[in-house]
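Entry 14. Two folds queued back to back today. First construct below, sequence then structure tokens.
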Amino acid sequence: MKMCVDCQKEVAGKKAVKVREDKTIRVLRKIKRLFRVAKGNELYVCEDCMKEHLEKRKSFEKTMLIFSVIAALIIVLLLVTIIFSGRFEIWTVLSAIFIGIFLFLFSMIFKYVPGVESVIPVPVTKKPEAKRKKKRGGK
């Protein structure tokens, strides 16, 4: 089915923009297939939700930038304190990096808004149903 990611309604027969299939969506699809809950929907943003979606995406990109900077600052701060303390331990360095990555992924999981392929909505057509082949009777 062709679904809008914002309003969760079917977009077949309406104007919509296709969602870009990025790494995050591919990973989510793999996880859903692994747990056998995948629906196989094609993701779109309908014309009605487009303005709101673009604002959410802009906010997401800004949040990602802020969280990336905060994570980098935490990593640098922890690494600098390790150097000034004079005690270098690999576990402390790894934990600093782990904390930075965790902050970045935390922001990604809870604020993720997928990008779109274009900003101009186009009509979405319904997928034609596959015709079933008739079985021929054997002797």
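Second construct, same run, same settings:
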Amino acid sequence: MTLELKDFLIIVVSVLLSCMITVIIMRKVFTPPHIATVDIQALIGRTSSRLGLQDLSEAELKAQVNAFTDRLKAELKRLALQNNLLILNAQGVLEGAQDLTPLIEDHLGDSK
């Protein structure tokens, strides 16, 4: 059985189209995450200072800290999922990543 030129060209074009479509889909679906940072220590420090200025019992302070931690985790997860981000602690990154600390403070309402 011999392969005619027409059949050969159809096979080659089909393979090329398949490869191109696969590459396009892979780039759209499996894009690598961007790297961003958050200065967790600064956020916690500012929140602790703000809470320390209030006259709270130890139980109230603990509840406030737990609520802040829960909101912080939820906000980081939301940002990471919505923007395809890998969020790292700022102390572990020397250069080249966007700092999201001010944005996180604004979203949490703790930029006081």
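Quick look at the second one. The chain has two domains: 1-31, 32-108. The chain has four helices and three strands.
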